[in-house]
Inverse folding.
DNA sequence: CAACGCCTATCTATCGCTTGGTAGGTGAGG
DNA sequence: CCTCACCTACCAAGCGATAGATAGGCGTTG
């Protein structure tokens, strides 16, 4: 498992993927960033698709851990829900980057099947977490928590999209505030 | 202006861009689809960036016309607003394609500046139209119509994103319905 | 009328570059 | 000595782009 180089490759690939997508990911630039030669990446990952799968898997694993940690840090479900947009804000802060989930939608037609599956796991985790928190916070009736979770997730992804294409984090904040004012997110 | 070949290239490029993005657009495949040789495209467009600009410009011009037509067809602003999600639904219907605006967000770091400008014009037109219709429909107070327009636009783009990455139009419909239930869109 | 010059729209052929991927070698450490 | 981790040196395919040629149409002018 995780040697130092392997971890460095994974981290650099994640950063690159969140800036340029899977298609924009390339072994030469990646190698320069890690400080090794491009061919050496093949020692750790047999193909680009495998690297993509590994990046996406690590991505949702980290997200799952972060969401769990947030629930521990902020046990009140309503307060926790209020903090949820922070997750998507962070990648904008880190160099105007995007959620891999949004890249998957854009690159849907050209993405290896296995990569798609891992990225969808990211979405599933978010939806499950949101559904759970919405239900315990009782902001919607129990039977509506799933559909509200999906609406919130989609809307927040959209807000991140808009903010990126204007390179303006304050737009993200304004959109989230707009969702609260409109009633999509609890005020 | 618009010779037959030029129009055919423009139409094929639009379709390709909505499926694969600007980066996924390539002259060889495009030429095959149009039925000419790749080099011949350069007679009509001096560079890929110029083609991208032309596609994006045509895209927002068509959208502006469609939005205007919708207001003529459905003069009642509330009814018109209800029909707005149809616009984004159509590209999903047409081969699970995406709005160019979402592609711009994904390809933000690698897109020629001139292309970005044209795609942003698409967003601006949508925002202006939504703002106007929201104000006349009086679904929000006049001073909130701009921020609500932005919230709706972002959320609908997000819904399109989610539906594409699941290749499931019914998910789009469900998300729009979710926005109505939550109060983001008028019920 | 016919010859000429020019434009349009396309072709073939190729260039320089980047990409993902491979084969085989090399040095350090247990 | 052998395995791990990395290297050098490639390759084939694909990319945007360019050069130069050609076939046909259209208008002007001797």
């Amino acid at each position: 498992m995780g040697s130092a180089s392997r971890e460095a490759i994974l981290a650099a690939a994640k950063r690159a993927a969140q800036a340029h997508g899977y298609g924009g990911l390339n072994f030469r630039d990646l190698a320069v960033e890690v400080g090794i030669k491009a061919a050496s990446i093949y020692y750790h990952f047999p193909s680009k698709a495998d690297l993509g799968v590994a990046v996406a898997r690590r991505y949702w694993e980290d997200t799952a851990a972060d969401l769990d940690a947030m629930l521990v840090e902020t046990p009140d479900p309503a307060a926790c829900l209020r903090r949820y947009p922070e997750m998507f804000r962070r990648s904008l802060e880190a160099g105007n980057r995007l959620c891999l989930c949004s890249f998957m939608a854009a690159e849907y037609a050209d993405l290896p099947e296995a990569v798609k599956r891992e990225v969808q796991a990211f979405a599933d985790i978010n939806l499950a977490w949101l559904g759970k928190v919405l239900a315990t916070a009782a902001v919607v009736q129990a039977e509506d928590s799933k559909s509200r979770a999906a609406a919130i997730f989609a809307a927040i992804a959209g807000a991140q999209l808009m903010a990126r294409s204007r390179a303006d984090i304050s737009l993200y904040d304004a959109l989230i505030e707009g969702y609260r004012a409109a009633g999509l997110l609890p005020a």
User: Anything to note?
Assistant: Residues 53-182 of chain A form a domain with the Tetracycline Repressor; domain 2 fold (CATH 1.10.357.10). Chain A touches chain B through 49 residues (CB under 8 Å). The mean pLDDT of chain A is 96.
